[in-house]
Design brief:
By secondary structure, this protein is an alpha+beta fold. It has a single domain, classed as Alpha-Beta Plaits (2-Layer Sandwich), CATH 3.30.70. It has 4 helices and 4 strands; from the N terminus they run αβαββαβα. It has a 4-stranded antiparallel beta sheet with strand order 2-3-1-4.
Length: 140
């Protein structure tokens, strides 16, 4: 049952519900036109994240890259774009509104938002050798 339906049913019965917001970590990668000011687009997107009670964990500029295919937007054909990657913390219920803002931003050619996977600490080569040597002793 959706939170909206649950709230409506609860109000009819005189019950007060507290719906806990679920924060998630998302990865957002977007492409900007070469003519667009990438810093301004990034500032607009950061402001949009904050508007929906989210926070930007990190921003990484991947630079200018060739596109696999031509993108037509606003009457122009784009064969190259600037790539930017952001890690965001945001409530799951606010993500669709944030994505709508990305669609409406004329500087963004394409975007992709995914739920971030759990970050696993890298394993050093020494730790791998220890595990391998431990397995060899068990086989004897």
């Amino acid at each position: 049952m959706s939170p909206r339906k649950a709230k409506a049913q609860a109000e009819g019965k005189g019950i007060t519900l507290t719906i806990e917001a679920r924060k998630r970590t998302y990865e957002c990668t977007y492409l900007t036109s070469l003519k667009a000011d990438t810093a301004k687009v990034t500032a607009d997107i950061t402001a949009s994240v904050k508007r929906y009670n989210g926070s930007v964990v990190s921003t990484e500029d991947w630079g200018k890259k060739d596109l696999a295919y031509t993108i037509k937007k606003a009457g122009e054909r784009h064969t190259q774009a600037n790539y930017t990657h952001m890690v965001l913390d945001m409530e799951a219920a606010q993500t669709p509104q944030f994505e709508r803002d990305l669609y409406l931003n004329t500087g963004v050619l394409r975007h992709l938002i995914v739920i971030a996977e759990a970050v696993v600490a890298p394993v050093s080569p020494d730790e791998i050798k220890e595990v391998k040597s431990g397995n060899e002793e068990d086989e004897e």
